[in-house]
Please model this.
Amino acid sequence: MGATMQSNDAQAAAAVRVSGLRLAYDDFLVLDGLDFEIRRGEIFAIVGGSGCGKSTLLKHLIGLRDPAAGSIFFGGEDFVKASESDRRRIQRRFGVLYQQGALWSSMTLAENVALPLETYTRLKAARIRQIVAFKLALVGLAGFEAFYPAQISGGMRKRAALARAIALDPDILFFDEPSAGLDPVTSRRLDKTILQLRESLGTTVVLVTHELESLFTLADRALFLDAEQKRATALGSPSALRNDPPNDVVAAFLRREAD
Amino acid sequence: MPRGEEASFSVEEAPGGGGHRVVLSGVWTLEAALPPVARVVERLRAAGAERACVDSGSVDRYDSALPAFLFELAAAGKRGGIELTEDGLPGDVTRMLAIARSVPARGGGGGADPGGAVARFGRMIVEFFRAAADLLRFFGRGIAATGELLTGRSAMRVRDLTDVFVGVTVAALPIVSLISLLVGLIIAFLGAVVLRQFAAEFAVAYLVGYGMLREMGAVMTGVIMAGRTGAGFAAELGSMRVNEEIDALETFGIRPFGFLVLPRVIALSVAMPLLTVYANVVGIFGGYLVSEFMIGIPAPIFFEEMVRVVGINDFWLGVFKGYVFGIVVALSGCLRGLQCGSGAGAVGIAATRAVVLGITLIIVCNAIIDWAAAALGI
Model:
């Protein structure tokens, strides 16, 4: 493993570039020395055991926390140093699916999907209704517009949150543990939806997961984080890493072995 | 296990000069009286031990208390510069210890900070100033958000504003009515008892009018709203924080302040003056009931006396206080809600802190307004 893990494929354009990133909660260091690129259009997984900082890294990538050091570039723009208005402009290109969906509980599914459209576009109400109905149909929830989040199942909530995440046709979709709390069948269905969306929309997908099934089904490349060493220890395609693991931790993780 | 069975230990020099031995004997169970770990370390130190082996061969009976003791002893010995090994342990105890030691203890900061009484007091002081700074910053963001609203750049939805307004006014009427009526009754009753000694019962009307309009109407409504609505705002926004709903707003570039806080502040700053006027009316009616049926002052005289002393400025002062308290209660509730940590318990803490902050600020603001009113001759 080299000092950096940047792509050597000069042809692939980077959707996200992370450079010298250090993440910390006050004086408690979570991760350090992160250098990697996420290529445009790929499904990029952030992987590791519980407590290794996967979700923390995601929170930094989407701007919910500021890093202790380092930079995050979206299409050449430094997100960390950007002004608040520039940050909002960059965030406008994100779609985020949170672990529990994070649908706004006081709004119906239609209102959840419509809010980003109402905030960022000047579309008329009828057009917004049309787009909302279509996005909900894309995730298999046609006809559920008037339901509140509390009235539908966990899997449906995740899909509704996905419809909200793609409301503004984002360039990059971030997923935080999409399979968390779902049964295997619902989980695979969600994986399939993610793949279909990537193929139809061409969106770059960044996925935080510790679920091997999703990892091997979805990810083009995976970044392994190590809680002990507080850094990334491997980057590559999941199957290549399984066949030729660069270290014992990655080998044990991909082969579902405990120490 | 019969009471009185005890665990005991002795420190001996190992034969052949190979360091020391800690020999454990007796009953080492959760119910038995175990020696403190510090005493074992102290005895080893007194014996000048650098290395010691714990021998459990003479232990009669044990449960998980034995490995727990050995686990702590090894750590305490290490801190004291004594290397401890174990000998003669039963297989299950060895296995338990191996599992417990397989993952090294996490170092670094974080977690609970025990500290002493002085440190806790210091932290309280720091926390107080931090809370004051947070509130000022929050107030500043409120002004900025109001500017955005006036220039049409706010994410606030009118429906949210009307929903909150209805929730904080109509639903609060029964409790405001009850408390205000009782406050009016109490002021008049206490006044009657004291003023009777000076044959000045008629002055009860001044007391009730002056007390309700200038002070009690606004303050009691503020306290009710801090306990009811302020806590409700904190719990609502806290739950949204826990469920990542606020994160979702932020990543869509929607500022939570404009979307969530502003409608609550506006709704409460409009509702509170109205509720204060209502509380004043009900409270004065309560005072009149005491004056009519206990003291025997009829309604025309009661209200005539009241109007003779109490002026329109007293009324407007109370309404102004209601407006200020409305802003303060809404900001306290929303601030504590947005500051909510993770987990269900954090929501309860946020609600409690919102009530404490809200009531404290009501009292402080009331004192400042009274002082300013006195200085201005109002």
Observations:
- The first strand of chain A starts at residue 14 and ends at 25.
